[in-house]
Amino acid sequence: MTATLLWDPLFRDPLMVGLVLAPLAAVLGCWLRVRDEWLACLGYTHAAGAGGVLAAAIHVPMLPAAMAAACAAGGVKAALGRVGNEAFAVMLLSGWAFALLLAANHPRADVVGRVFLDGQILFASRDQLWVALGVAVVALASLPVLSRRLLRQRFQPAHHRANRRTHWASGLAFDLLVVLSMAVCSMAMGVMAAFAMVLVPAWVAWRLARGWHMTLWLSAGLAVIAYLCAFLLAILLDQPFGPVMVAVLLTGLPLRLLSRPGTSG
Amino acid sequence: MSVDPLVRADTLVVGHRFPICRPVSFELRPGEILGLAGPNGSGKTTLLHAIVDAEHVLSGSLVRRRDAELTVLQQRPGLPEEAPFTGADLLRICKAEHRDPPPCLLPLLPKRMDMLSGGQVQLLHVWACLGCSASLVLLDEPTNHLDPDARVRLADMVETGRADRGLLLVSHDRTFLEQTCNRVVDLLPATAQF
Description:
The complex is a heterodimer of chains A (about 260) and B (about 190). Chain A is an all-alpha fold. Helices cover about 80% and strands about 0% of the residues of chain A. Chain A is built from twelve helices and no strands. The relative contact order of chain A is 0.17. Chain B is an alpha/beta fold and about 190 residues long. Chain B has a single domain (about 5-185), classed as 3-Layer(aba) Sandwich (Rossmann fold). Chain B is about 25% helix and about 25% strand. Chain B is built from five helices and eight strands; from the N terminus they run βββαββααβαβαβ. In chain B, the strands form two sheets. In chain B, strands 5-6-7-3-8 form a five-stranded parallel sheet, with helices on both faces. A three-stranded antiparallel sheet of chain B has the order 2-1-4. The interface of A and B includes residues 36, 157, 163, 215 and 262 of A.
């Protein structure tokens, strides 16, 4: 029955959207942890949510509006430089307050606002699948190039400066990739499910994996398994997808206890 | 044939708004290991930063050869408390694959770095600098976290990694510098009395 449900034509596009976005978000979560910026994506998801709600209120396409709002939030972050978690928290709170106030005062925005908060991937369309695939292809093409520079910047922060090479371009490209991915994820999965997808699989893999590549694979694998479980549970139990997704991911959090790193003195 | 120095400092004074050190002159050529010694607060790390980004120079001159590829060991290399990176990851990320790592590091390469001791991590970070192709290597306090045995290994690594490049070691440990360097330059705080 479960296999039939998964392959039901009604659910096929939503299922595929999540199968593309879940590993993408989880892998990006690993790099965000490297950069100590995992809270940033919660700011981006709320900014995207606010953009989507605003788009509904003024009758413009929601996905581009969500992406534009997340890009604007990314631009603010880039302009402020590495400012720490407080700036991301302000971004989050602003997006949340703006979206809810707009939703409370506009009937159409109210519906969209609830979709963002609940996360209804079952409504994801073929258009969203194409956009998700596009972002995933861009990520697949750019991350191998960006990865070494981003990681080296973490381990040897003075390296690029010392050799008179600029680092801002790779940082900006990564930020843009995160912003676009988070906008698409929040539109499809809901704000909190997108954030949990970035946070939890990478956090678990961070503890269990030995080596960077294993961390990426484990994080992506955990995200796909959790997503499939949540997708089925949401349909079978007739529950909103977002909270189910978050609950399933949190259920996997104790996996971190399987390994207990300690230093050798 | 004379080889241009990788770095040349002439009556150099570094500082932020005020001088930290007294004027110092030195030059470092390929194949040399130069030590910069001095007590805490004498401007050793600030001088290193000046070589990296040409800032903090208050007077005198500091010239770095334009074609010199540089790598730097900082005192607090960035690594989250919990991180899945192995020693091999670190060397790959820092492109320290130009030379084979010394035998003492081989057992550390498959292990997660957050499972290693501070001294083992320090040796890996040193080799991340020495194992790459940079022609100028700056090591800031490389003896941090090292016990006497590890210091011997560090001295071997420095000797192995010198080849035809210039190494600048900054340390308050003058004994170590005298054992490993061709020359040692003393840096005196600006407030030092004579």
